[in-house]
Design a protein that fits this description.
- This protein has 331 residues and is α/β, with parallel strands linked by helices.
- It is built from 11 helices and 14 strands.
- The strands form 4 sheets. The protein has a 7-stranded parallel sheet, sandwiched between helices. A 3-stranded mixed sheet has the order 12-9-14. Strands 7-10 form a two-stranded parallel sheet.
- Helix 3 packs parallel to helix 5, helix 5 runs parallel beside helix 6 and helix 7 (200-209) packs across helix 11 (317-330).
- It binds nicotinamide-adenine-dinucleotide and uridine-5'-diphosphate-4-deoxy-4-fluoro-alpha-D-galactose.
- Nicotinamide-adenine-dinucleotide binds next to helix 1, helix 5, strand 5 and strand 7.
Length: 331
């Protein structure tokens, strides 16, 4: 298949491009490089021996998308492109709604014009808001998002579902990711946020490296086994493999929703201890106040993806920690 990967030079997109190329798909990437670097294209080539076609373009740029669809006969789109910083989205709601929602509307309109009706969308566990219980199943209610970033995911899920209702030629897969961490074993691609990281794992690896003095753990008074927040950390390689399973089994028509997680919740302290065990490096930390908007526990029931796609996450928490650390050291 020839697959257009929006946001393909980003963290999850680049790992997915590698696996698509490895299984023989043709890959066309469109990315405006707002949160990634063009050197990722060469890294993908170095890993796979194949160079994906790359367009530095914005998904808001209708003409650019039109040219891409005109030049390449695209069979399906995996749509990663989007802004993803939760805190920034609170400060810049217009920018987030415009980029994520208007960008996706533009993409969908151009897809329709060119007769391409298959799309896999990067959604997030954030659409479940504060879940009534864990593990979270796909049929749990969505809503109650606490920031504009999460709300863009919620609205886009709705928009994509409405599109199918209007025209049964669409095949839509909504993938709700839990917490991806780790990197490709080559250490050529990984999560490399600019500035001070917001997410836990890149913060931990920078403390391990000595770039940051200590980790702040946001609260130890949650109703969890050790009081710190519990999340479903998933190796980015497993997450990428989930996309491959989806693409290979994509129906001709319909809307499907899958959780991509491991089904196991680990606390912030569990992760810190696993990191220390697997790398031998001590992580100094301090317990601080809760971070506004955080929830106590968020972990998946991934049974539907296993049942319908034959996919399940394989990597252990220790493997994820080692992989994240190897990438940090190499970069
Ligand atoms: P990322 O920032 O590394 O990758 C996103 C890519 O999209 C970047 O390369 C960026 O330059 C590009 N991009 C952004 N806006 C664009 C635009 N208008 N036109 C073209 N390119 C644009 O993020 P990621 O972690 O790889 O996330 C990929 C997707 O998965 C995002 O939609 C994100 O919201 C979603 N997601 C991520 C996580 C996570 O924890 N990483 C969790 C749940 C969902
Ligand atoms: N945490 C700390 N210290 C830090 C960073 C995080 O204690 O420096 C804690 C948080 O309080 C939380 C846990 O680590 O309990 C995980 O936090 P992250 O910021 O790494 O991840 P979140 O679960 O908050 O959110 C992530 C993505 C969202 C996505 C969500 C989906 O950032 O975009 O996963 O599950 F929607």
């Amino acid at each position: 298949m020839r697959i257009l990967v929006t946001g393909g030079t980003g963290y999850i997109g680049s790992h997915t491009c590698v696996q698509l190329l490895e299984q023989g798909d043709e890959v066309v990437i469109v990315d405006n490089l707002s949160n990634s670097k063009e050197s990722v294209v060469s890294a993908i080539e170095k890993i796979t021996g194949k160079r994906p076609v790359f367009y530095r373009a914005d998904i808001l740029d209708r003409e650019a998308l039109d040219t891409i669809f005109y030049t390449h006969k695209i069979d399906a789109v995996i749509h990663f492109a989007g802004l993803k910083a939760v805190g920034e989205s609170v400060a810049k709601p217009l920018e987030y709604y415009h980029n994520n929602i208007t960008g996706t509307l533009t993409l969908l309109d151009v897809m329709r014009e060119h007769g391409c009706f298959k799309i896999v969308f990067s959604s997030s566990a954030t659409v479940y808001g504060t879940p009534a219980s864990v593990p979270i199943r796909e049929d749990f209610p969505t809503g109650g998002t606490t920031n504009p970033y999460g709300t863009t995911k919620l609205y886009l899920e709705r928009i994509l579902s409405d599109l199918y209702v209007s025209d049964k030629r669409w095949s839509v897969v909504l993938l709700r990711y839990f917490n991806p961490i780790g990197a490709h074993e080559s250490c050529l691609i990984g999560d490399n946020p600019n500035g001070i990281p917001n997410n836990l794992m890149p913060y931990v690896t920078r403390v391990a490296k000595g770039t940051l003095p200590k980790l702040c753990i946001y609260g130890n008074d949650y109703p969890t086994h050790d009081g710190t927040g519990v999340r479903d950390f998933i190796h980015v390689e497993d997450l990428a493999a989930g996309h491959i399973a989806v693409v290979n089994k994509m129906a001709d028509s319909g809307v499907k929703v899958y959780n991509l997680g491991t089904g196991v919740g680990y606390s912030v302290l569990d992760l810190v201890q696993a990191f220390e065990r697997s790398t031998g490096i001590k992580i100094p930390y301090e317990i601080t106040d809760r971070r506004p908007g955080d929830i106590a526990e968020c972990w998946s029931d991934p049974a539907k993806a296993e049942r319908e796609l034959g996919w399940r996450a394989k990597h252990t928490l220790e493997e994820m920690c080692r992989s994240a650390w190897n990438f940090e050291k190499a970069n």
